[in-house]
Amino acid sequence: MNRASSDLSRRLLRGVLTALVLLGAWEGAVRGLQLPRYMLPAPSRVATVLVERSDFLLEQAWITAFETLIGLVIGAGAGIALALLLAVLPLARRYVLPVVVISQALPVFAIAPLLVLWFGFGLASKIVMASLIIFFPVTSAFYDGLRRTDPDLLDYARLVRATPVQTLMLIRLPAALPALGSGLRVAAVFAPIGAIVGEWVGSSQGLGFVMLQANARAQADVVFAALVLLAAMALLLRAIVDKATRAMTPWQSETD
User: Fold this and answer.
1) d(CA 61, CA 210)
2) Could you tell me if 63 and 206 are in contact, meaning their C-beta atoms sit under 8 angstroms apart?
3) From 11, 195, 212, 218, which residue has the greatest number of CB atoms within 10 Å?
4) Nearby residues of 191 by Cβ (< 8 Å), 6 or more positions away
């Protein structure tokens, strides 16, 4: 077994052991305190709901996953494009960057109803919401990486009379890829949140809609079942993005 496989095995083992301890404590607390199901369902009850309503829950999960993935692609693409623009155009840094920063101070719940009004109750408003949440972490991380290029590398570029485009593509962009990877990892975790918020505000499908309806009926076990699927979705998306960013920066060593 190579080192990468061994590290992955240890991480999985630690994750499984931690999950088992937490689930055991949760189950024991619910049974010991005799908490009603509508207040806090036991993990065993949540597992039962996942099995009994698997077809329905998975169908709704696929809808949320689609919104999340499309939102991640659009938000990350827009963030990368804006970061490049800010890096090469001083005028954009003066006038666009403050607007981007201020926009992040607006609560997403205040924006979500407007997006539903503008884009309707379908998938579009949820995708836009997911894109907006993803957009800022990617823009911020990538732009920070672009403007922190090693000065020695920039001096070398000037010495060999590289053009600004060559300097950007051959030096600044590769040097900023680790920072972009960090932004994408953060975005992967936040991506489902945008879709869920959009579904809460206005939808007739998706895990957010399931949780909203179940909460209104005091079906806490269904809410937790949807949360389990949402957590699994976020972990899977984070793992995929992490794998992609590692492939994108093979020269960067990482430690546990």
Assistant:
1) 10
2) yes
3) 195
4) 68, 69, 71, 72, 75, 130, 133, 134, 234, 237
Total Cβ atoms within 10 A of residue 42 = 19
Ordered per-residue pLDDT tens for the chain, 256 residues: 455 556 656 776 776 788 778 878 877 877 878 777 777 888 888 888 889 888 899 999 999 999 889 988 998 999 899 988 888 887 877 888 787 777 777 777 777 777 777 887 777 888 888 888 888 888 888 888 888 877 777 777 777 777 777 777 778 888 888 888 888 888 888 888 888 887 887 777 888 888 888 888 888 888 889 998 988 888 888 888 888 888 877 766 554 4
For tokens 């430690």, name the residue.
255
Residue 255 burial by CB count (10 A; 0-12/13-18/19+): exposed, middle or buried? exposed
Beta-carbon contacts of 123 under 8 Å, excluding residues fewer than 6 positions away, are 63, 66, 67, 70
| 190 Cβ contact list (under 8 Å, min separation 6) | 133, 134, 137
Q: What Å distances lie between residue 254 and 177, 242, 244, 245, CA to CA?
A: 14, 12, 14, 12
Closest CA to 19 of 214, 215, 208, 235: 235
Residues 6+ apart with CB under 8 A from 205: 60, 63, 199
Structure tokens at 140: 């911020």
Alpha carbon distance 106, 97 (integer Å) = 15
Q: What is the CB-side half-sphere exposure of residue 19 using CA atoms within 13 A?
A: 10
